[in-house]
Structure formats: C-alpha cells, structure tokens
Amino acid sequence: MKKIIWKIEPLGLPLVLRHCKKCGKTSEFSCSGQFRVNAQRKYLDIWLIYKCAKCDTTWNAAVYSRVSPQALNANLLEGFYSNEEGLARQYAMDFQFLKGNGADVLRPSCSVLGDIPASGEVSEVEIQSEYPFPVKVSTLVRDKLCLSQKDYLERVTEGKIRSSAGQDLRKCRLKNGMVLIFQ
Ligand SMILES: [Zn+2]
C-alpha cells in the first residue's frame, strides 16, 4: 500500500467577528500578533490584541486573567512580553480560546500539501495538521481531488474513500494524524 502524507497549511490567521463600537456593527477583527501584559500588584493580565479591519479599534482576547507570574513558565512569560510570533500564532489558531472569549471565528482557507493518490491503486493518506481546525474532512479531500460533493459522497458510499478508524467521512472533522484509505 502506498503511503502518503498530507500536510494542512492554513493561509493566514483566522479572522474573528465581533461587534465594533466605532463601526457600530459586527466587524472582522484580525490578530495583531501583539500581546498586552498588565501587571497589577502581584498579578498579571495577559491579552492577545485584535484590530478591527476597518477602523483599527482594538479588541483584547484574554489569555490569562489575574495570574501570578510565578505560575507561568519563564520562557512562556518572555514569549508574551516579546510578542513571540509562534506563541501569538498558537493562540490565534486556537478556536476554543477565541470562542471562550466570545468571538465568532472564521476559518482560514488552507492548502493541502502532498501527493494525490493514484487511481486504481490503494493508498493510505495520513493527514497532519499542526493546528486543530474545525474543518470538515470532506472539504479538504474535495478541494485536494477537485471532487464535487456528489462525486465525493459516491466514493465514500462505495468505500473508495474511507477512514481507517471508521469515522463517518460525510461529516467528521479534521483530526491530526487521521488516516484515510483511497482506492
Ligand atoms: Zn471598527
């Protein structure tokens, strides 16, 4: 069986939808890549800062509220102070974190890197994604193979595309390390 790896790469960071006071309506906010750390007495408040795409009004997504500096790993704390790119990305990609802050999150488009399984040959495709996107597997596979919804469903029904763990490929969402079998 041929083994293939698909790497899911997001194109950009997710935008979030929030009400913007200045615009007076729901706006798209994008991640600034900057953290704000406020020290108050013995505690820290840490936010990741978003900006309204239209007017630059900021919205702060709470990362930590009233946390003791000793409770945080020194490297992590330094990452917040220095706006470390990877750290900001990690939070900006975390849908649970953003939803917990009351934002609606727009999924970024992503590209699927890796070979296309040859037809008439059985291939095992492992999907790797550094970030847990709530994206449907059907969307990824259809984009990669340029399949219509109808063609995709036909192949799934016929067992020509299936999940090694028996997940329902009509509706299941991306999980890092999941394996699909194509034939
Ligand atoms: Zn605005």
TrEMBL record:
Instruction: Name the Pfam families on file.
Output: DUF1062
Tell me the InterPro entries matching this sequence. DUF1062
Domain of life assignment: Bacteria
Protein name per its UniProtKB record: DUF1062 domain-containing protein
Native organism: Eubacterium callanderi
